[in-house]
Amino acid sequence: MSDTIDREALRARYRAERDKRLRPEGNDQYLQPTGRFAHLLDDPYTERTEREPVHEELDVAVIGAGFGGLATGARLTAAGVTDVRLIDGGGDVGGAWYWNRYPGAMCDTAAMIYLPLLEETGHRPSKKYVEAPEIFAHAQRIARTFGLYDRALLSTLVTELRWDEATSRWIVRTDRGDELRARFVAMGTGPLHRPKLPGIEGIESFGGHAFHTSRWDYGYTGGDATGVPMDRLGDKRVGIVGTGATAVQCIPHLARAAGELHVFQRTPSSIDVRNNHEIEADWFAELEPGWQQRWLLNFATLQTGGFADEDLVKDGWTDIAQRIRDRVVAEVTAGSELSPELISKAFEDSDDEKMTEIRARVDAIVGDAATAEALKPWYRQLCKRPCFHDEYLDAYNRPNVHLHDTDGRGVTRIDETGAWVGDEHVELDCLVFASGFEVGTEQARRSGFETIGRDGLTLTDAWAEGMRSLHGVHVHGFPNLLLIGFSQAANLVSNVTHNLVDAGTTIAAVIAHALEVGAVEVEATAEAEQAWIDLLGSGGQPQFLADCTPGYYNNEGQPDDRRGGMFSGYPGGPVAFFSFIDAWRRSGAFEGLDLRREPAAV
Ligand code: NDP
User: Fold this and answer.
1) Interval 222-256: pLDDT, tens
2) For 407, what's the count of Cα atoms within 13 Å in the CB-facing half-sphere?
3) Are the beta carbons of 456 and 236 closer than 8 angstroms?
């Protein structure tokens, strides 16, 4: 198919679509939920009950009880470190899966690899891709299995994290008046945690009902998170702003429930097939011990262009990578020399082919030609979070569903009774913001608290010119603080939990070792951190991100601004990183870390 694609015309179209979306204010265009929307940060699911403040010393405080915090807690427990407390603002564990209960919420990374610690917890996913309630229940299962509920401080927001040099302890303060003095702090506050609102003029003036997808208001819509239909929207005009991965999942449900549904689109998502199916108990029972690690590495290998005998996951994520790989193999077999240019051409050809198929799929499903045209994505597939859905496009065939394509400009204005797109006014009773989460803003703004390290240095100041770390885990100037994430480490965005579990393994190994040898302080040396930053920089910024339509993957069209550059990873790729860090852990040398038996301040 790629032979019939006019490459020049396609590139020109991609550039034009990107250029009309570039905004000088980049990330600053978004609004924090304040004023009329301040309640959007509240917990609608769990009533806050009063409790006595906790004042104590402990080995490890884990901030965040999502999959990152849970996996770290599990790995610590397995390593024999049990004096651990999880702290989370939500009323239960689960993180993103505690908060996101919108209709249709599910994960389109395969459950066999997305759900952490399946072998350790003995859980069989019900389907290839599972719904949010099953994912939330799995988070609870991990907490139960590893005894992490016992001392968890839930519905508790950390307000400050301060290093006390005299005692080599982190002082963790919370909105409950707690004061924990922790030897170590593991921070798993998540990459997509704090809801943001679209920067639309007049947003505060909307007089109807409004909420963000991460705080779905079933009290207003009827129905519930388990899939009971929303029965209170039949006479309502509902608007939804955004057409990212979240909106793609909830729009089919809103389309069925709402009297009229108005979708306000700035950039269409790419919607590939999903093909969900059940996971058979007999087949699952036959899997050999150690299967999950094999599946994880198989997926990571194939998804990032490597070779494996078999594709265990077989989905849209591995599909494009294998097309690229097969093209390279065909060219080399035909006598071409393996070169960066050859790989780059194979990448472009495969992507053009894939995106042409995705646009053809829109035509095949959506009846109205103008609507179909507006739903076609004009950018490379990995510029934005690829979506996989079998009902989304069909929702636009319903007579009550209206697509308002803003041609990349976004909603013009909101007033008391509805939204404006150009000079068209759309009357609305309810407005749903599927506008995503803060990504490129400072750490303190995203986590909701400041981290104050050695000599009063804040993490915000330490990272004023961009994140700095050793292995994405340790930060010079912040002893005994360990980050649970993917940035500056494997950076495997197609399966975030793989990164988180691996970080948890590293953190547990470091803490267990420090406790064993009596080290009171563990800190990345300045030299090791700098060497790591230099190594990350040597990989260069892929040009394709700069050419991409704006989104959080490329810091809203400003990929060179390192302050927003959370998507940097090991130059050798995720699989090479996992192998490197495994060897680093196993060596027992903990190279790059300064382990001190006396506080540095003494
Ligand atoms: P996103 O940030 O991906 O999407 C936000 C949407 O709001 C975009 O469509 C954006 O348009 C639109 N928008 C922003 N401002 C305006 C405006 N002024 N006018 C009109 N539209 C506007 O957030 P999501 O919550 O959809 O997804 C966040 C992430 O969560 C995903 O990328 C994914 O990583 C994860 N997720 C994963 C799922 C899974 O299955 N695994 C499911 C759901 C979410 P534009 O594109 O032009 O910026």
Assistant:
1) 999 999 999 999 999 999 999 999 999 999 999 99
2) 5
3) no
The DSSP H or E segment spanning 60 is strand 55-63
Contact in structure between 72 and 65 (CB atoms under 8 Å): no
Q: Would residue 549 count as lying in a domain?
A: yes
Per-residue pLDDT tens over the stretch 561-579: 665 556 789 999 999 999 9
Probe ligand 1: pick from 266, 299, 438, 487, max atoms within 8 Å of CB?
266
Q: Cβ(558)–Cβ(524) under 8 Å?
A: no
Question: Residue 562's domain spans which residues?
Answer: 55-194+439-596
Q: Is residue 468 part of a domain?
A: yes
Ligand 1 pocket test, candidate residues 211, 216, 246, most atoms within 8 A of CB? 246
Q: Which atom of ligand 1 is nearest to the CA of 248?
A: 26
In terms of DSSP bridges, do strands 430-433 and 450-452 run parallel, antiparallel, or are they unpaired? Answer: unpaired
Task: Return the H-helix or E-strand segment holding 59.
Answer: strand 55-63
Q: For the whole prediction, is pTM greater than 0.85? A: yes
Instruction: Show the ligand 1 pocket: residues with CB < 6 angstroms.
Output: 21, 107-109, 192, 198-200, 241-247, 249, 264, 266-267, 385, 410-411, 434-437, 551-552
CATH of the domain at 140: 3.50.50.60
For residue 418, is it within any domain?
no
Domain presence at residue 506? yes
